[in-house]
Design brief:
Structural class: alpha+beta
Largest sheet: 3 strands, antiparallel
Strand order of the largest sheet: 2-1-3
CATH superfamily: Ribosomal protein L30/L7
Number of domains: 1
Helix content: 25-40%
Radius of gyration: 11 Å
CATH topology: Ribosomal Protein L30, Chain: A
Shape: globular
Distance between the termini: 14 Å
Oligomer: single chain
């Protein structure tokens, strides 16, 4: 059984967007431009990614 993970990279700055979008980026662990994190593709993570997809680059990977 392979778990799906998302490799998430912050490509655009959240400055100038609503505060909840900046907080969502920080909650995902994205604090600097071009920083990358890997999270398990849970419904909560997918929902956060959808909120700020215009700032991100997302890849689906099989494992960490």
């Amino acid at each position: 059984m392979t778990d799906k993970y998302l490799k998430i990279t912050l490509k655009r700055s959240p400055i100038g967007y609503k505060k909840n979008q900046r907080v969502t980026a920080e909650t995902l662990g994205l604090r600097k431009l071009n920083s990358t994190v890997t999270h398990k593709a849970t419904p909560q993570i997918v929902g956060m990614v959808k909120q700020i997809i215009h700032l991100l680059e997302v890849e689906e990977v099989d494992s960490k």
